[in-house]
Write a structure and sequence with these properties.
The complex is a heterodimer of chains A (204) and B (334).
Chain A (H helix, E strand, L loop, with lengths): L5 H26 L3 E4 L3 E4 L1 H8 L6 E10 L4 E8 H12 L13 H23 L4 E2 L3 E6 L12 E12 L2 E12 H17 L4
Antiparallel strand pairs in A: 1-7, 2-7, 3-4, 3-5, 3-6, 4-8, 7-8
Helix pairs in contact in A: 1-4, 1-5
Chain B lengths: L1 H11 L3 E5 L5 E4 L1 H7 L3 H4 L4 H4 L7 H12 L3 E3 L25 E7 L7 E7 L1 H21 L10 H18 L3 E8 L2 H8 L1 H17 L9 E4 L2 E7 L3 H17 L15 E8 L7 H17 L5 E4 L5 E4 L15
Parallel strand pairs in B: 9-10
Antiparallel strand pairs in B: 1-2, 1-5, 3-4, 4-5, 6-8, 6-9, 7-8, 10-11
Helix pairs in contact in B: 8-9, 9-10
The chains are: A alpha+beta (204), B alpha+beta (334).
Amino acid sequence: MFQLNELQYDALRELFNLGVGRAARSLSLMVQDEVELSTPVVTLVKPADVVTTLLGSEFRQLSLVTIDFAGPFDAQAILLFPERNALAIISQMLDPDMSPEELSEFEQEAMCEIGNIILNACISALADEFGVEFQGGLPMHYFSDTDSLPLLDLEGDRIVLLLQIHLTMRQERIQGHLIFLLSVSSLSVLRECVDAYLTRVGLA
Amino acid sequence: MHREFSQQLLDHLQAGIILLDRQGRVLAWNAWMVRHSRLTLSEVAAKRLDEVFPDAQHTRFLDAIEQALRFRLSSMLAPGLNAAVLPLDHQPGDRRLVRRMQPLIYVTPMSEASCACLIQIQDMTAMVRRERRLRAQSTQLIATTYRDALTGVGNRRRFDHDLSLSFSDAQNKQCPLALLMIDIDDFKAYNDCLGHLKGDECLIQVATALREGLRQRGDSLSRYGGEEFALPLPEADRDLACTIAERLRLLVEGLGLPHPNSRVGKLVTVSIGVSAMVPEGEHSPSDLISQADQALYQAKDEGRNRCVYIGADLHVVPVCPHPLGPIAVPSSRR
């Protein structure tokens, strides 16, 4: 199985925190209130293990925003929150007095945009620091239960870069995950990019 | 022919289309944009959108364009999060400018030599408005289903909902939660003697008096059943809960409603069972209810028109009337 060393993990954690930090600034401006985002944990797992790693919890219903990115390496990026957490985020963003039960499908657009902001910020941080260019598609949002998670259908040698994401807004802390689904060859390019970055900043 | 056809196609679309070059300057601006922005292509051609829409500075709209031009990333802007981000009219020709459009915007990078970015704009104003109206209606309906029709305080459903929320909150934060169960003394006798219409009036007056005694923070009083009211008190420990209970008891007595058939005295009075706990993992809201209930029975047994506290250790503490100050409870009995 493909691995990264500690230094490479550290670099990725730093770059993703840079990305979500930018996203937090955009979100703060939009809601005119402080939004904090961080990604404290980065791991590499097999798609099948994603389910056991993060979905063995009590949360069965998930909210997902996905964007496909193409560039030096291709990735399907997914921002994933347990559905209740997602609804909590949206009601905080749109109207804190609204209970999650009152939110309709209409608010899926808002979730879509929030995912868009966070995922684009991560990818643009990588693009900036790696000095490369990606092409990103439009975000898609859907709800899914853990059993029919699209990750499970994937055959073959895909690898998942799994990041925990913490979002804090108006004293409420909401946890979710960022998932980057990569082919082995894409992961190998990502590793080269990370190494080049580490060399450039004088750490390798 | 090809160019003309593309132009026709763009102009017939019922959505706004803007094309930008690599520097972010306007290449195309379809008929829909002209209608809704009151700006013609010749007025905007070769300008950047921050010049065309000075109000959009520092908005996500310009960020999204920057992301498309610089990073080749796509974005969508939902109306809920970016209300009226662009000065577009919902109804073309609406000179009073009363209604800015609520747009749904897609920004995507293009890989063509001259054209670097496509912006699509859809008018969601009607949908947003319909959504708002439906939400207002549903909020009202929800409020109705949670209200006791006679007294205007919460009903049993409200109470169950409030208590379960306060309970899990107290459990998470490990802070105290108190509950008062309030029962009108000898209410059956009141009804039997004066009739149900008077009984209803009495319930309304008692509920109004109880509401006046609530904390500023907006505690939610509910009618638990018949002549019984319940009041969860988040972040209230025993002493605070007892103080509030005593205040409520005095307020009801102070109404001075004559009760011709009471065993307590000549006026309508209430007995109050008080309970408080810092809920642990194994506790459930029903524990708190049963403690408060037990305390209420105790208050009835001891002669009514009084407050009694029972805690998790089932220690019974009578609450002495202390209209002028906090209630002194020996700390050894906590």
